[in-house]
Amino acid sequence: DGPGRMTLPMDRGFDGRPLANPRPLAVDWQGRMSFDGVTAHFETAIEAHNELQSLKTAVLDVTMLKRIDFAQPTAQERPAVQMLACQGGMLLESRAFDGQRVVAWDRMRTKDLAVNQITGDMLAHGPGWFTSLRYGAAANPLNPVQPGAPPPAAAATKTELQYLNVQFLKEITGNLNQREMTFHDQVHTVYGPVKDWADELNADRLEGLGPRGVLMTSQSMKIAEMPAPPPNRGSLEIDARENVMIEAQSFTARAARVSYAQAKDLIVLEGDSRTDAQLFRQQAVGGPTAKAAAKKILFWRGTNRVELDDARFLDLGQLGGGTLGTNPLGGPRPPAAPASTKPRLP
After folding, report:
1. Which of 215, 234, 213, 214 is nearest to 224 (CA)?
2. Sequence-ordered strand ranges (E) for the chain
3. Using one digit for the tens of pLDDT, what is the confidence trace for 156-172?
4. Which end of the chain offers a freer environment for a tag, N or C, measured as fewer CB atoms within 10 Å?
5. Which of 85-89, 134-138, 321-325 is predicted least confidently?
6. Which residue, among 185, 144, 186, 143, has the nearest Cα to 164 in the 3D structure?
7. What is the dihedral of CA 175, 220, 86, 109, to 10 degrees?
8. Alpha-carbon dihedral sign for residues 313, 213, 242, 121
9. Alpha-helix runs per DSSP H in the chain
10. Measured distance CA(156)–CA(145) in Å, rounded
11. Is the bond preceding residue 231 a cis peptide, omega within 30 degrees?
């Protein structure tokens, strides 16, 4: 009973990833703690932390992989944590360093969280949010090349701070050993570059996203980090489904499914049996709108190349510059539709 601290052995982070230098986890509580040899139960104002991560919650259960017998402390192998489970609200923060320099800062707030440290399986219930700031290529994976901007090959040589915020209603499922999370129900995603660790992108107005920020809404969204040989960082893959809408200052897209593969620099918009994928793009606000509708729209951002599968409508005269002035399916261009001054879909 009362406040206290327990130090636990941890060879993995809260995210289940093995630590290069295993370090102990200090757990402070203000209410009470009970331990039966397998599960340590903490109550009231829990703060668990090490040099890289911190966790705040109301109730925390830490389950060991094997029972600890204090009567025979020398006859056992090193203790290992199997499960972490939070209840009553949870805030998780994690930082990554390159030497003394911070290169990533992730935060997540949910109603609860359960992580299997061995298998990597995780579950968190919402409503909640996940925010990630990390250095990456200057190019925006969800936003096609901006008119007049340097080509992606030149932009990719620079690094800048990238901001990602995902808000969701129902839950997060995933496997942290496999570096993937899926957000469920009324998912709102904001992505774009920022100048400082304290900066955020305003999703309430498109103007608040900046020229390269993007807002995406969907019913589910999966984020996965594809492995890469050291010292390279893994590439990002995004898969959003059900009533996907993407908005930016210069373009709008709607599809049943949107996927993005960073390694291929490829954005894919897909329709379903009822509706086509649609892409609306403007060279300048208030200018002519380029339009495309097809069962599938493939866009390679690096080469400014578009391919349409089962096209229903095509007017790419203004899309991405002169390289898209011809029909990517071959043959003559279809007649242009009347220009619109609104970049958003109805």
Report:
1. 234
2. 4-8, 25-29, 32-35, 39-49, 53-64, 81-98, 101-110, 113-116, 121-125, 128-137, 159-168, 171-175, 180-194, 214-226, 235-247, 251-261, 266-270, 277-282, 289-300, 305-315
3. 445 778 888 999 999 99
4. C
5. 321-325
6. 143
7. 120
8. positive
9. 152-155
10. 12
11. yes
Tokens linked to 334: 């279809």
- Its pTM stands at 0.78
Q: If you search the block for the tokens 């199997």, which residue do you land on?
A: 82
DSSP 42: E
- Cis before 127 (ω within 30): yes
Identify the residue whose tokens are 């994690």.
Answer: 94
The sign of the CA dihedral 155, 156, 159, 162 is positive
Which of these, 288, 335, 279, 283, lies nearest to 308 by C-alpha position? 279
User: What confidence tens digit (pLDDT) does each residue in 278-306 have?
Assistant: 888 766 666 677 788 889 988 776 666 77
**Per residue in 49-94, pLDDT tens?**
887 889 999 999 999 888 887 777 665 567 778 899 999 999 999 8
| 289 and 343 Cβ atoms separated by less than 8 Å | yes
Task: State the Cα–Cα distance between residues 298 and 13, nearest whole angstrom.
Answer: 38
Q: How far is CA 108 from CA 127, 201, 306, in A?
A: 11, 17, 36
